[in-house]
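ugh ok so i messed up the first submission bc i forgot one of the chains. this is the corrected input, ALL of the components this time, i swear. 1193 residues overall. if the numbers dont match what u have on ur side tell me asap before i send this to the collaborators (the ones from the other lab, u know who)
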Amino acid sequence: MAEAAHNIVTARAEALGARLPPLVVRAERIASTVMQGVHGRRRSGQGDAFWQFRPYLPGDAASRVDWRQSARSDRVFIRETEWEAAQTVALWSARGPGMAWRSRDTLPVKQERADELLLALAALLLRGGERVRGFGAPRAFIGRAALAPLAAFLPEQPPIPTDPRLPRHARVVLFSDFLAPLEETRVALAGLAAQGLRGHLLQILDPAEETLPFAGHIRFEDPSGGAPAPIPRTEALRGAYQAALAAHREGLAAAASAMGWSLATHRTDQPPELALLALFQRLEGG
Amino acid sequence: MLTLGPLGFAAPWLLLALPALPVLWWLLRVTPPAPKRQIFPATRILRDLRPAEATPARTPWWLLLLRLLVAGLIIFGLARPIWQPNAGTGQSGPLLLVLDDGWAAAPDWARRMAAAQGILEAAKREARPVALLATAPHQGEADQLVFLPAEEAAARLAVLRPKPWAPDRVVALTAVKALRAANSGGFESLFLTDGLEHGANEDAAPFLAALAEAGPLTLLHAPAEPRRVIAPPVLEGDRLRIKLLQALVAMPGQAAILARGGDGASLARVELALPAGAGSAEAALQLPSEIRNQVVRLELEPEAGAAGVFLLDESFRRRPVGLSAAEDTGADAPLIGPLFYLLRALDPFAELRRGTPEALLARRLSVLILADRELADPKEREALEAWVRAGGTLIRFAGPRLAAKQDSLLPVPLRAGERQLGGMLTWEKPQTLASFPDHSPFAGLVPPAEVTVERQVLAEPSPRLAERSWARLADGTPLVTAESRGAGRIVLFHVTAQAEWSNLPLSGLFVDMLRRLVALSAGVAAGEADQALAPLETLDGFGRLGAPPSGAAPLSARALDETRASPRHPPGWYGPAGAAGEAAYRRALNLSTHLPAPRLMAAPPASARMEALGGEAAERDLGPWLLAAAFALFLVELIAALGLRGLWRPRRFALPALLLLALMPWQASAQGADGSAALATRLAYIITGDATVDETSRSGLAGLADFVNRRTAAALAEPHGVTPGQDDLSFYPLLYWPILPDAPAPSAAMVAALNDFMRQGGIILMDTRDQGSGEGMSPGARAALRRVTRDLAIPPLIPVPEDHVLNRAFYLLNELPGRFAGGQVWVARDQDRANDSVSPVILGGHDWAAAWAMDRNGQHPHATIPGGARQRVLAYRFGTNLVMYALTGNYKGDQVHVPAILERLGN
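and heres the new structure output, hopefully the right one now
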């Protein structure tokens, strides 16, 4: 049953990702953490493709001398290959009762939308030859066939995005409603930033959470177990609620940009392609 | 009792609760509705926004009004409101309610009971004591007539049923007199009368006078209702003459009499017209005796209770006929036995018994036939003589033995020996029969010319010979003579009962003669006269048979005819105890046998008030209706309240509710359509969902039906559109199925229905509408055909062979064009004997419906391609052949073999 659900989500995510070109994340930093990948870095390094011959310098290992080239002239040459590298992208989607909610039967549950977007992004990345990591996963996922194991791994993600084993300079994308208290989110982000990670937040909200379309005497109950909020006339509170939500989001954006991160918002009644396109551009560009 | 205009309240003190409504208003206003619960992940944000405003939500005014309305309706409903309460008589003294509950009250018994209940209801409200007097005698001791509370009288009234006998006004009169003696103050009387005089004397007048003397008298009666009685029918040969009696009414009337068999099946119906002022009407029921023998019950239509039912017992049924020959062994030997022809002739309409006369007479017998049997034993002769005098019919056939030795049981003295005609040594020729004289029971029968008599016994000439002769030969010698003795008669055939002396027994005339003789015989001769007959089944007042009431007593067979229907002897079936069953001997006791012709009662005393029954509007208790309305409003209120609390999800409940609502009338109409579909032969088309195509199919089949109706003996009704799997296909011989390019694969139910249809002999004409000259008109139809037919059980197909029945079922055709021509038409390859070798599928693409279609003006809306009137005619001819093929199967296919058969015969 669970496996069938994975397959469905995976298939939908792949279909979603198929509409965009393979996502190639620009590797911006030459670092030891960067693993060998498929795209050339336009400089010499580890790789298969020939890059240049350069004169032998003292200190080069004798085994690296290209003798055939050196025999054509008096000088000794060393053959250099182009450095091919891949970027690691760590993905996380929030779990919890608050995520498993929708206001109407016609809408997807937030959780479902988050997983769908996560897998679509992962599919694009894997197709581009990048390495995808899950928070708390022992190893990175490589190759297109890794999408199914990734989908199966999703339920095992930690409730809070922390993973000390993540490689430095990896990119991070977090999918959540970020409705938790602002301070909690800020602490989690600071921890990630301290690891040298940079990334992107996608806030996924149900339209009802944006607009508060209810009216009348309603007792609101927090699915994650907080105290209920009885509201006598909900319609009177609508404006105030929307303002409070906007303030929360601003705080979130401020916390993100303070650490060099960015924030985007997605509503479940919008097509997921929009969010995916935004993520795509975001990762490709910066 | 509180009365406000036409409205009365039986429990008005409950209305005092009405002032409590404003209190309820106040209570309902202050109680807010419970909050709706809503799970919301962003509750934390909401929680931080604790509003200052915390007033309870107010109940909407309309909901409040609804609740008050419910409460008000309940209060009003419990106060027992009555619409147009009967005013009663306005008096307070005791009331005597007299009811006629004899047979004449049965037809409008419900109205009588309603009127009586209304009266008792009014008396209950006025707290008047009531005495209830039913005029028909009932089982057991008559109760002392006393005044009771109206409730008790109502309980007694509820158990009253009309009785299957007549009221006795003399007994009623004594009861009234006793009541009068006990109540010196007098009492008011209401008489629900049937308006008839029931005794032989004028009994009603003194009864009415006694009632009028005791106090005010009101007569309630239904003057327009005729009281009808089926008089005992008379058996006249083959006919049953039925007489209907009625009390004089000013209006002409209509009635019918139904003859029913033992199982209740209606076997015949006679209409009777009763002109204005007529007291009776007659009709004859002419039925073949085989059918007439099955009739056990005559019923009046419209139902008229016990007097409208007449039970026919054995005296109206098959006659027991005894047969006896001189030697019993070989008596029924084929063609030569003396009883062979008699058995053959009598068997269909009489119950035959065989044995010696002595053994036969031990049981009841209406006819005894002796075939050339001498009666030597004087004791036997005496017994026979007594039986004949009691009503038996003795039929004797001559023969060598009778010619040799005569006895006293002969209608005419005979000459010794027999006369031979046309023998070897005589000049005379065999004689034919003369036509039957008018006094003979055979009058009207035509003797065939080929019936001849070669030998016979001759009667001594005597002055009365001519009147005793029922049949003669052409030369005037008697052939059949008869003589009445007592209630019975003796008949002699002067020839043998087998074809030895004449060929009369070989002719149909013989059968007719015997039939008339048996019909002439009067029922069952009395036997076992003293046997006690117990009631087996008796009629109730409505004329329904049921178990006899406990007070019903047995009576002797002899007394049955003289017995009047009474509580001790209710009308019905009587028979020997323990011999119940259809075949058992039983006799009928009928109410009308001793009923005088119904006549109207004498006019009541001048002081009496006359009222028509049911003239007054019945009072109506509104209480239950108000309570029901309150309940309905309460449901509305409940839904509204749930809606306000958010617990009512209209989409969750409304959809099933709407479906239920939509389904119920739809199912009803579907059943209606099914019923009408079975009434006529009609073509049908499968609804594709494309309105244009469906309309073409409909008008095409309508045009074809019109053509077929004009040209052939088939009568086709308007075509139907059907959806396989939803509609019952079994009424349609042919389904037209246009295959659309975008046709979806049929559902499982549809496939099952179509496979069933084909298996049971139905034909499906599938039309892809893209063949021949129409190539390319409907791209994709072939793919659709493949998709649509994937699951259908379609047999292997071949192009229509030239000698296929489809080419010659009505017209001789070489091609099968529709709107298009030139394409290939396919039929089943294998001949399946199970369905008369009819192909379950005819597959083609000529768009036939378009060729057959006709618009309202009789024009053809679709041009034929390549065109021409000839193609249209051929299309219709193909349609005709198709319909014939569907209706008659391979009947015409056999004609294909005619040349071969003729050739074979020629050789």
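quick check: Chain B has a mean pLDDT of 81. that seems consistent at least. The two ends of chain B are 105 Å apart (CA to CA).
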